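User: Okay, second chain of the day. Same drill as before: sequence in, structure tokens out.
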Amino acid sequence: MRLNQPLLKLPKAFDADRLAAEVRALPATAWLPHPGNYPGNDAVLLVTPEGQMTNGFTGQMAATDHLHACPYVMEVMGEIGAVWGRSRLMGLGPGAVVPPHVDVNYHWRTHTRIHVPIITNPQVRFTVGEQSVHMAPGECWVFDSFQMHNVRNGGTEKRVHLVLDTVEGEEIWDLIDAANNGTAPPPTRPPRPLRFETVDMHKIMSPWEVRCHIAFLIDYVLPNPRLEAVLNRLDRFAAAWSSAWSEYEGSPAGLPEYRRLIAALRQDLMASGGGNLPLQNQVPLARALGELILDVAAPDPAPGGTAVRLAS
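Assistant: Same drill. Structure tokens below.
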């Protein structure tokens, strides 16, 4: 998703008091430590694989018991109207920070993250690139997670946001278009029954998706004398992947060939130093290629025959 600014407030608002009442009614045991072990960061899991208490990204997503205990949160999600992936209430304690980072993982390349502040204070600042804002209670925001970003709670009260991941859809794009263009928001729709992701990624990445991710990354590569050679090597990889796809498509029989192509590209980038080319967000090209394509394009099949992908 490309926005016309790093942080974008959508023309949507919700009743923060009703949201806060539901948050405060949750038991203390609902709050789990952040999977990255950031001090002062915790979360309540709302949408997870099979509705279980896991931080996983992949599989049939479903509401947890904690989401069922928050009917107004469900109403908010229904009014936004997207198909939902991994979603949580995210807490940030007094004085705590989310350190500067870039979301390079495949999940965030293919998803938009929506923030609805619930409990906050004026000393909470969300910074993306050169833009820094305080998100007020009940507002609705999206941001460019491929830029360096961080959050700091300089206040004395815990901050809580409703954080929703979605593959977007027309409802979200209507809101983004209105915010980007300063036009009137679309009419409010009645809340829809909640819809959840079934497929997070395909077992074998299609050549069209491979080319899409390559094009996305090349837009971020800074000028460099080695860039032309890297572009040529990536074009060759995409062409070879298309050739293999035309023979095997998603068949497990094609895994040796797909993995040979991945290994050869890794080796060539390492030997040439091309993988060290920096992106505008300070991430090396090799890391971004790995997380968006090479680590996930032909994963090992799980015992049940589905692809497994590990993510932070």
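The chain has nine helices and 13 strands.

User: Thanks, on to the next one.
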